[in-house]
Amino acid sequence: MEAQTWTVIGLLAATLLGTLIYIGGRIDGISARIDSQSAQLNARIDGLSSEMNARFDGLSTRIDGLSTRVDALTAEMHEHLRWHAG
What we know:
Order of helices and strands: H
Oligomer: single chain
Radius of gyration: 36 Å
Helix content: over 70%
Number of helices: 1
Number of strands: 0
Shape: rod-shaped
């Protein structure tokens, strides 16, 4: 009876060890896939960030141009009001 008990214990231990090794391999594989997808996602985010920065710079330039036009129109209005107040 004692030999059977040790045999069952040995089989269970071997099964558990095999399962741990198998699951460890699967986890390593999933980890590699996650790392790969993370690197791809980081590259896409960096690309979008560069594109957004370029667009923001373009908008900033346009806003500066509009600001110049508003300043010119303000000066013209002041001149026109001075002429009428004259």
